[in-house]
Amino acid sequence: MEIIVLGTGCAKCKEVYEKVKKVVSESNVTANVKKEEDIMEIMKYNVLSTPSIVIDGNVMIQGKVPTEKEISELLTMNSNQAKKEMVKQQYSELAMNSDLLKSGCCCGTNPTTPSKKVFTIMSEDYSQLKGYEADADLGVGCGLPTEYAGIKEGDTVIDLGSGAGNDCFIARAEAGESGRVIGIDFSTQMIEKARKNAVKRGYTNVEFMEGDIEEMPVPDNTADVVVSNCVLNLLPEKDKIFKEIYRVLKKGSHFCISDVVLNGIFPKEFTDNASMYAGCIASAIQKEDYLKEIEKANFTTIKVERTKTVVIPDDVLQEHLDEATIAKYKAGNVGIYSITVTGVK
């Protein structure tokens, strides 16, 4: 395991470095601990603030001094937990950056503003939909699930990975004042942003819960409709999330999910890239396997409502991958698709 502490030499950066070394020395983990103080090297990690901790190439913590317990938990995570934590960090950073929070490094400099291109290459135009709120639209979806969700007046709708609240507010426009909309997201920063957006508009029937969508903080048989926009493919254990969706839906109710699927295999160097993973590309699985996971969760009447081909622009590839990996990716001719799929409990 390789651990790099990013920081430009300020007191908090040094504190984190010493804490990491201490935790490693007291644990059974074999790790090479380094610090990176060169601002040009730090910028390559696309972090918004330091001190940051990078484990095996993935930014796991940024902009704070973690406790020794938090560091220890990071070191003992399994690979699936590590991937989820990496995604959480990337999307928390996106929420912070969208609000132009230039808090920067603890010693007063902001190393970089991360590129948003990899998150937005599949985004759709929501602006004509009823309930659309521009400041809740971060442009990180890959479809328009509410268009095919069949939301009715009075429905209870759950949005998985609700971000800044965009799909929740559109769902509210369809469910009406008698409906209820619940957004769930594991990023504290996203939840805070969504709640502010709801309060600003005086919405009383939209609530946002911080939680893991693989273990939703809602009772069985709660929802009439579950929607999600380009989130589930980020989770390493697809089987768990579809079973959880089944649990929270009422009998006879349904889901509508937009997500990314593949036809073909990415090179390993591509799938190992943190930005490509968090951007919903490298994390995607084969379309056939995705639909099988839905079937295994006991859903019926499964239908792909819409399919759109996704093309990764060359400038995005060049920003995140080396030339050799780009060549392997292009030679593989992998098909990348955004699908919107529905299913009934």
Short description:
By secondary structure, the protein is α/β, with parallel strands linked by helices. Helix content is 37%, strand content 23%.
Layout of helices and strands, plus pairs?
Layout (H helix, E strand, L loop, with lengths): L1 E5 L4 H16 L5 E5 L2 H5 L8 E4 L2 E5 L5 H9 L2 H20 L18 H4 L24 H4 L7 E5 L5 H10 L4 E6 L2 H14 L4 E5 L12 E7 L8 H11 E15 L4 H4 L2 H5 L6 E2 H10 L3 E10 L4 H7 L2 H10 L2 E10 L1
Parallel strand pairs: 1-2, 5-6, 5-8, 6-7, 8-9, 9-10
Antiparallel strand pairs: 1-3, 3-4, 9-12, 11-12
Helix pairs in contact: 1-3, 4-8, 9-12
Give an overview of the whole structure.
The chain has 345 residues and is of the alpha/beta class. 37% of the residues lie in helices and 23% in strands. The strands form two sheets. Strands 5, 6, 7, 8, 9, 10, 11 and 12 form an eight-stranded mixed sheet that branches. A four-stranded mixed sheet has the order 2-1-3-4.
Quaternary status: single chain
State the end-to-end distance.
43 Å
Q: Examine the coordinates and then state which fold CATH places here, giving the name of the CATH topology of the largest domain.
A: Rossmann fold
CATH H-level superfamily of the largest domain:
Vaccinia Virus protein VP39
SSE series: EHEHEEHHHHEHEHEEHEHHEHEHHE
The CATH architecture of the largest domain is: 3-Layer(aba) Sandwich
